[in-house]
Design brief:
alpha/beta; 25 strands
Length: 437
């Protein structure tokens, strides 16, 4: 019986295992050093905030795996020997495979700061990281969070839920301005400030200072300021977790290089999820996508190939969602922080500064390109169809009410939203797409 070994029990690896089992009776082994069972990584913050317990974020009962004849191995892989089709564990025991799928996920970035290995410095990615935050938060008088991205703002919200004062170091002039357009970024920055966060914009970490006994005492910023603290969260992005493959003959750049079939350069070896790096970008997407739903899609796709029906990975239209404190964020299609040459953008913001919409479209053809929404939930299916059918910006504005999940809000504000956005489209055209003053 063909033996499929999967390294990693995150969304990619577990989706793959489940779909292979649906399609075949192949032997399946899933290996993870992080946890015995699959859990929803995106829900870790809610355990810390007291909204959930660990058992609530495990989508499957513990006996699910035995019932479905999927073997789980809780161990650390230190090496892969493709010539012998075997993996070597940290205790030097080995496991043979017929096909190997690497779904080893990401690891948190650390950039060699002085003091980054002191007790009190942590990241937020794994279950073990969450346990570390829980331990460090007891009695903490001030925390530092370094890095103004999605993980950083999650950590800030977590710490505030325990009434721990937070200083938030953000290297950009406004929050997440490398991804969000100017007004969008300013909206979220104001919202963070409204929650009492000591946000330091255009500021980097320079050094973490010890108390002389191996513990964090303070930090020094690149402005020369010293800030006392007892914990430092480093949330400066993630990188593919591939160090254990450095001695193998599997091609690696930043991640494991794969083609559209998710095959590596070695026969019968594949990579999916955060650790996989496409040889060529798919559309405007990055070659590495550390996104939950793309990991799930890769698992579903590769299961077909492994079970004899080769299928290319096709992620479709870009979308994503997150939450900035009290403001839910959704994005569909492409809305660039710095608009492309052919791209025009229009923007509406509610007087509360808690709800906003930005739409991107092609100034030459009027084709709708993408939308960002803040505090307004819209339907994924609507925008997937709109993008596939290449509808015009005017069509989208006129039909926004058909996309909303909040009839009460849209009923009272739809005309204002529609008229504001349509007027901006008209004005931009009249001004030959010079910026609206």
């Amino acid at each position: 019986m063909e033996h499929i070994v999967i390294i990693g029990n995150g969304i990619s690896g577990i989706t793959l295992a489940r779909h292979i089992r649906k399609l075949s009776d192949k032997k399946i082994t899933v290996i993870s050093a992080e946890s015995e069972h699959f859990f929803s990584r995106t829900a870790l913050m809610y355990i810390f905030m007291g909204h959930m317990k660990y058992e609530h974020i495990k989508p499957y009962e513990d006996d699910f795996w035995k019932k479905n004849n999927i073997e789980l191995v809780n161990a650390y892989v230190k090496e892969v020997v493709t010539t012998d089709k075997k993996i070597i564990f940290a205790d030097d025991s080995t496991l043979q495979f017929d096909k190997l799928v690497i779904a080893s996920g990401s690891k948190s970035n650390r950039f060699g700061w002085k003091g980054q290995d002191l007790y009190g410095v942590f990241s937020l990615y794994s279950k073990q990281d969450l346990e570390k935050v829980e331990e460090l938060s007891i009695g903490c008088q001030r925390a530092i969070v370094v890095g103004g991205g999605l993980i950083g703002i999650e950590l800030v919200e977590m710490l505030l839920s325990r009434n721990i004062p937070v200083t938030f170091l953000v290297r950009e002039k406004t929050f997440w301005s490398s991804i969000l357009p100017k007004e969008d970024s300013e909206l979220i920055t104001k919202h963070i400030l409204a929650h009492g966060v000591d946000i330091r914009l255009d500021t980097n970490l320079d050094e973490i200072i010890s108390d002389g006994f191996g513990n964090v005492q303070s930090i020094i910023t690149d402005k020369g300021e010293t800030i006392d603290c007892c914990m430092v969260g480093l949330t400066v992005g993630v990188s593919p977790n591939v160090d254990f493959l450095k001695s193998s003959n599997i091609e690696i750049d930043r991640g494991i290089k794969v083609n559209r079939f998710l095959e590596t350069n070695i026969k019968d070896v594949y990579a999916i999820g955060d650790c996989a790096e496409q040889h060529e970008a798919i559309g405007n997407r990055k070659t590495i996508e550390a996104v939950w739903y793309t990991g799930r899609m890769m698992g579903e796709t590769l299961a077909q190939t492994i079970c004899g029906k080769p299928m290319q990975y096709n992620p479709g239209n870009w979308f994503n969602s997150s939450k900035f404190m009290d403001i839910e964020y959704q994005t569909y299609g492409w809305v660039m922080a710095n608009p492309l040459e052919n791209e025009a953008q229009i923007y509406w913001e509610h007087s509360s500064s808690l709800k906003a919409i930005r739409i991107s479209y092609d100034k030459n053809t009027d084709e709708f390109l993408g939308i960002n929404t803040y505090g307004i939930r819209l339907r994924h299916e609507f925008f997937d169809t709109i993008l596939n059918e290449k509808k015009s910006v005017g069509f989208v504005i006129e039909n926004l009410k058909n996309a909303n999940f909040d009839p009460e809000f849209f009923t009272s504000h739809y005309n204002e939203i529609k008229n504001t956005l349509l007027l901006q489209v008209t004005t931009l055209k009249q001004n030959n797409y010079e910026p609206i003053r």
